[in-house]
Amino acid sequence: MTTDRRRLLQTLTAAPLLSLGGCVGGRLAGGGPLSEDVRGGIDAVLSRHAIVTAGIGVIRNGDLVGEHYFGEQQPGVAAGPQTRFNVASVTKTVTAETVLRLVGQGRLDLNEPMAPWWTDPQIADDPRHALLTPRMALNHSTGLPNWRFFLPGGRLAFVADPGQTYTYSGEGMQYVARYAAAKLGRPFPDLVRETTLAPLGMDDTAIVVDRTRMETIARSRDSAGQVYEPWCRVENEGGCSPQGSWAAADDMVTTVRDYARFLRGVMDSTGYGPAVTADRNRVQIDKGDQAVLDCAANPELTCPVRQGYGLGFNVLDYGSEVVLGHGGADWSELALVYGACNARSGLVVFLNAPNARALAAMPEVLSRVDPTCPFLPEYRRWYAESL
């Protein structure tokens, strides 16, 4: 992977994404959930960009009112509602929601130091580790890097002081998961299943590598068309994750229907009360030049009163509406999800293809499903930068 390509991948992974037109305009394109014209246009885009697999879900008033699937989940097997997608950094939303539910149950505290229960050995000699809290992990202000392997020697270290600035960090999400597991004496995947997945009926979602149940997972392919097993990457990305391993920040597999259930639960704040909900919906930290919407450069956009990162989600606060969302990108997937809390409406888009092809297709897909999406310029810019 070239330096420029790795930088683009870091940028995509580090920029949680939101679509907004569905909540501001009150409708989605095509007059209905997904009209035949819209479906046909989506298929034409996906075919032209050689997308391997795609799943799209439209949520209105809390219900999944439209689904669309494209391509094959594995060679010779068509994609459909059963297809499970690797959703990359969208995994973080389930980790965050699990922590918030545990906070709502009084079992965790967002503001307590994590050090008494968990300290990563590689930063144990840095006194700043004692400042780390679950809140910092969920709002990406730990001062830790996205991943330690981006740093010299591949060792974890602070890139900023904790609590001071936005530093998007998969390491931070892993950190809070280790803390929760240590404090509660339960493996984190068990906490996720018991606290979030099972109550929401997400039977086809997992953060644990399970090679005994791979038949419905969309198979990744590289640019040459080689098919890879789930939880495996192209050679220069690091091989395959071992059976039974898990991640709190990446590589969750889920279906469109399961994630729609999850998003409805988020919008309805099931699992915790109004105090946690208000905290979750509040902008916790400013993202500076990584802000979702560049309102100064794009005055035609419908801009929020406040925007930034909240607790596990990007937050666009319009005063009368709060939109929560996230995106994910990896070598063979691109995912975009959002929910408008008051309208209880949102969008789920999962693309399985080499990242460059998925990135080329995403803005065209969004323009057909939600033509007022303010992320279209961002996606187009990212695609231009990848050429």
Element layout with pairings:
Layout: H1 3-13, H2 21-24, H3 36-48, E1 53-60, E2 63-74, E3 77-78, E4 85-86, H4 91-104, H5 134-138, H6 170-184, H7 188-200, E5 220-221, E6 227-228, E7 253-254, H8 256-268, H9 274-280, E8 306-309, E9 314-317, E10 322-330, E11 333-340, E12 345-352, H10 355-369, H11 376-386
Antiparallel strand pairs: 1-2, 1-12, 2-3, 4-7, 5-6, 8-9, 9-10, 10-11, 11-12
Describe this structure as you would to a colleague.
The chain has 387 residues and is α+β, with helices and mostly antiparallel strands. It has one domain: DD-peptidase/beta-lactamase superfamily (Beta-lactamase). It contains eleven helices and twelve strands. The protein has helices spanning 3-13, 21-24, 36-48, 91-104, 134-138, 170-184, 188-200, 256-268, 274-280, 355-369, 376-386; strands at 53-60, 63-74, 77-78, 85-86, 220-221, 227-228, 253-254, 306-309, 314-317, 322-330, 333-340, 345-352. It has an eight-stranded antiparallel β-sheet with strand order 3-2-1-12-11-10-9-8, with helices on both faces. It is globular, with a radius of gyration of 19 Å. The model is unreliable at 1-32 (pLDDT under 50).
Major β-sheet profile: 8 strands, antiparallel
Shape: globular
CATH topology: Beta-lactamase
Strand order of the largest sheet: 3-2-1-12-11-10-9-8
CATH class: Alpha Beta
Q: How far apart are the first and last residues' alpha carbons, in Å?
A: 14 Å
Number of strands: 12
- Helix percent reads 25-40%
Order of helices and strands: HHHEEEEHHHHEEEHHEEEEEHH
Number of domains: 1
Q: Approximately what portion of the residues adopt beta-strand conformation?
A: 15-25%
User: If you average the pLDDT, what whole number results?
Assistant: 89
**CATH-defined superfamily:** DD-peptidase/beta-lactamase superfamily
User: Which architecture does the CATH hierarchy give at level 2?
Assistant: 3-Layer(aba) Sandwich
Number of helices, counting only DSSP H or I runs of 4 residues or more: 11
Secondary structure category: alpha+beta
Give me the Rg, rounded. 19 Å
Unreliable sequence segments? 1-32
